[in-house]
Amino acid sequence: MSEEGAAVGDAASPPPGAAASPPSAPAEEQPVAAAGEEGKAGGEAPAAEGRRYRALVLTGFGGYEKVKLQTRQLPGAQPSPAAGQVSVQVRACGLNFADLLARQGLYERLPPPPVSPGMEAAGTVVAAGEGVASPKVGDKVMVLARSGLWQEVVTVPANQTFLMPEGMSFEEAAAFLVNYITAYMVLFDFGNLRSNQSVLVHMAAGGVGTAAVQLCQTVENVTIFGTASASKHDALRENGVTHPIDYRTADYVEEVRKISPKGVDVVLDPLGGSDTTKGFNLLKPMGKLVTYGVANLLTGQRKNLMAMAKTWWNQFSINALQLLHLNKAVCGYHLGYLDEEVELISSVVTKLIALYSQGKIKPKVDSVWPFEQVVDAMKRMQEKKNIGKVVLVPEAPQKDESKTTEN
Ligand SMILES: NC(=O)c1ccc[n+]([C@@H]2O[C@H](COP(=O)([O-])OP(=O)(O)OC[C@H]3O[C@@H](n4cnc5c(N)ncnc54)[C@H](OP(=O)(O)O)[C@@H]3O)[C@@H](O)[C@H]2O)c1
Predict the structure, then answer these.
(1) Among 28, 35, 289, 346, which residue's beta carbon has the most beta carbons within 10 A?
(2) Confidence class of residue 143 from pLDDT cuts 50, 70 and 90?
(3) pTM as predicted
(4) Which protein residue's CA is at the shortest distance from atom 11 of ligand 1?
(5) For a substitution probing ligand 1, which of 384, 389, 390 has the most ligand atoms within 8 Å of its CB?
(6) Which InterPro entries does the record match to this protein (predicted)?
(7) CA gap 313, 247 in Å, rounded
(8) Closest C-alpha residue for ligand 1 atom 19
(9) What is the band of 146 on the pLDDT scale with cuts at 50, 70, 90?
């Protein structure tokens, strides 16, 4: 992990309510000084009182080395959010599968590099702009944005923050929004999951998968088929998966049909390509497939053109008449394109916080990594080792720098 001192800015003009901005005037780049090079960046001495803070920055598309830790500087001692915005001292950030795709240039919702990635974080409000009644300075919040949250200090519209419920840690909070909003909306808004039904959850030990499995159990008597590497099957059972399937050594379609010859009621499809077709064929009459990812695109550290071609070649396609004859539904979900649906997302978060407070859902944090170890964090997910959420923190955790957590 290297530190680099070139001046960088996030999206030049992100759409309203989308990306987090640097915590000072977003239209002009702030001078950035490399660690140990105070006052040199931008060719001018930065204001002596300007607060320095660290940010992870994607400097270009490619391998792990494209993510750098940089030091930036505010014009003043404290951030000064504009009207309707708040500034947050970030304590933990979520790593999402989309961040791996984004690094390779495969996630279209990330503004072009150089850009600070990061769609979710948690921290404490340190400043509130004019007209912001909530959250208040000192409140602990979760933050959702299109990008820009892997920084020690971020400034976002107040309506992109959500108060953390009592008893929730910053690490849990960084594992909450993206995974649970996605899982909730695909299972209930699109999937319409009801009691005595069955669900196939792919990547069941991952962030969204773990959340989906927990949410399935808020409905009575749901049979959960969950795919994951064999080493994760004990964890799957513990989390509530009825039938863990090792998709790496067995044909998951056959495995499902051995137990449920008619198939399943709901398929959650984060894989894309030929897996969407397999999922669709596994649906019972009146079944629903919700597609929400293309994990099959990711085969290594860099963009794989063969995998891309194969995935797109096998892309599922169907027409309305075929759907009519088959009595099945196909839905597509992308949280990244719902960023202007503030009320809709807020209503889902309210329901999720209630479920958390009732003890019905609890984020599973796989591991916590300081910003300096962002490469190790990304490897953990890309090498299929995580069970639950991979979390980044600006400050090194006290016990040990990067170890897996029990929760
Ligand atoms: N549409 C949306 O709004 C939205 C929002 C959030 C997430 N998603 C999608 O949901 C899926 C899960 O996301 P997540 O952030 O929770 O990640 P995650 O599930 O924690 O991802 C890592 C795990 O996925 C499994 N995996 C399957 N194929 C893989 C591949 N090609 N490369 C690496 N790992 C692979 C691995 O476990 P096993 O192999 O052991 O299963 C790995 O440990 C992704 O497809 C993501 O893009 C979509």
Answers:
(1) 289
(2) very high
(3) 0.90
(4) 270
(5) 384
(6) ADH-like_N (IPR013154), ER (IPR020843), GroES-like_sf (IPR011032), NAD(P)-bd_dom_sf (IPR036291), SV-ATPase_mito-regulator (IPR052100)
(7) 21
(8) 206
(9) very high
> Can you read off the two tokens belonging to residue 254?
């056959």
| 378 CA distance to ligand 1 middle (Å) | 12
- Ligand 1 centroid, distance to 112 Cα (angstroms): 23
The kind and range of the H/E element at 200 are strand 198-201
> Is the torsion defined by CA of 289, 245, 197, 195 positive or negative?
negative
What are 245-254's pLDDT values in tens digits?
999 999 999 9
Ligand 1 nearest-atom number relative to CA 182 = 5
What is the atom index within ligand 1 of the atom nearest the CA of 387? 43
What are the tokens at 359? 């003890």
| Exposure string for 365-404, b = 16+ CB within 10 A, e = fewer | bbbbbbbbbbebbbbbbbeeebbbbbbbbbeebeeeebee
Q: What is the pLDDT of residue 327?
A: 98
**Tens digits of per-residue pLDDT, 261-295?**
999 999 999 999 999 999 999 999 999 999 999 99
Distance of CA 230 to CAs 35, 54, 204, 236, 250, Å?
43, 38, 12, 10, 10
The angle, 0 to 180 degrees and rounded to 10, between the axes of the packed helices 177-184 and 342-357 is: 100
The secondary element (H helix, E strand) that includes residue 225 is strand 223-227
Q: Does the C-beta of 207 come closer than 6 Å to ligand 1?
A: yes
Count Cβ atoms within 10 A of the Cβ of residue 196 and give its class: 0-12 exposed, 13-18 middle, 19 or more buried: exposed
Q: Which atom of ligand 1 is nearest to the CA of 205?
A: 41
